[in-house]
């Protein structure tokens, strides 16, 4: 399974200034600079992307670490989640996420979907199973099924696949800053360090403007 093995515990690390981080975080070590930058959705902002899979245990464990960080991001940072598409159930769960996003309810049920898969051992591998579960979360079953099979969601899936390929990802969770830098929990040295790398690269991009 294409997930990164976590060797570091979920422990806190002190924050460093940009100069200290510059000495510590290096291209080719904690992060990779993409040879071909990927265009961002809103060029006036600094884009941060997390690629994930609902079935990935490390993505699930990363949630309580990354969510408070996302909530405190400044206005000039545009955070996005994109489902990784490696075929099979990855694509099915990706279609689930993109359907919820298209309906405007992803924020309300995202945690519940993760919980269902990892704690309640639900596979959520068919549209009917998803719709039945989501109905218990207040999502209209018929509306979900209609959106799940819609042309719009299929288009979002193709875009997500192309972005994953452009970012040259091989596993999840992985983060991309401003379409230029890729890093993950393994290269960064753990969940909290991953966010420190993200902070460093955000500031690097901000300073370059």
TrEMBL record:
<keyword id="KW-0732">Signal</keyword>
<dbReference type="GO" id="GO:0015036">
    <property type="term" value="F:disulfide oxidoreductase activity"/>
</dbReference>
<keyword id="KW-0574">Periplasm</keyword>
<feature type="disulfide bond" description="Redox-active">
    <location>
        <begin position="56"/>
        <end position="59"/>
    </location>
</feature>
<dbReference type="InterPro" id="IPR036249">
    <property type="entry name" value="Thioredoxin-like_sf"/>
</dbReference>
<keyword id="KW-1015">Disulfide bond</keyword>
<dbReference type="InterPro" id="IPR017937">
    <property type="entry name" value="Thioredoxin_CS"/>
</dbReference>
<dbReference type="InterPro" id="IPR013766">
    <property type="entry name" value="Thioredoxin_domain"/>
</dbReference>
<dbReference type="InterPro" id="IPR023205">
    <property type="entry name" value="DsbA/DsbL"/>
</dbReference>
<protein>
    <recommendedName>
        <fullName>Thiol:disulfide interchange protein</fullName>
    </recommendedName>
</protein>
<comment type="similarity">
    <text>Belongs to the thioredoxin family. DsbA subfamily.</text>
</comment>
<dbReference type="Pfam" id="PF01323">
    <property type="entry name" value="DSBA"/>
</dbReference>
<feature type="domain" description="Thioredoxin">
    <location>
        <begin position="16"/>
        <end position="153"/>
    </location>
</feature>
<dbReference type="InterPro" id="IPR001853">
    <property type="entry name" value="DSBA-like_thioredoxin_dom"/>
</dbReference>
<feature type="signal peptide">
    <location>
        <begin position="1"/>
        <end position="22"/>
    </location>
</feature>
<dbReference type="InterPro" id="IPR050824">
    <property type="entry name" value="Thiol_disulfide_DsbA"/>
</dbReference>
<keyword id="KW-0676">Redox-active center</keyword>
<dbReference type="GO" id="GO:0042597">
    <property type="term" value="C:periplasmic space"/>
</dbReference>
């Amino acid at each position: 399974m294409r997930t990164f093995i976590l060797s570091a515990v979920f422990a806190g690390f002190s924050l460093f200034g940009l100069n200290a981080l510059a000495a510590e975080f290096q291209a080719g070590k904690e992060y990779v600079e993409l040879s071909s930058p990927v265009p961002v959705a809103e060029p006036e902002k600094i884009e941060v992307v997390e690629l994930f899979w609902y079935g990935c245990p490390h993505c699930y464990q990363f949630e309580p670490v990354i969510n408070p960080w996302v909530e405190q991001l400044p206005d000039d940072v545009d955070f996005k989640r994109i489902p990784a598409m490696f075929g099979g159930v990855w694509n099915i769960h990706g279609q689930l996420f993109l359907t919820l996003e298209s309906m405007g309810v992803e924020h309300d049920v995202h945690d519940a979907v993760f919980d269902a898969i990892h704690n309640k051992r639900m596979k959520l591998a068919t549209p009917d199973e998803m719709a039945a579960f989501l109905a218990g979360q207040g999502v209209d079953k018929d509306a979900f099924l209609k959106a799940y099979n819609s042309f719009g969601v299929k288009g979002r899936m193709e875009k997500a696949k192309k972005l994953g390929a452009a970012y040259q990802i091989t596993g999840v969770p992985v983060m991309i800053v401003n379409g230029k830098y890729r890093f993950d929990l393994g290269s960064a040295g753990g969940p909290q360090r991953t966010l420190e790398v993200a902070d460093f690269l955000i500031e690097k991009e901000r300073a370059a403007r």
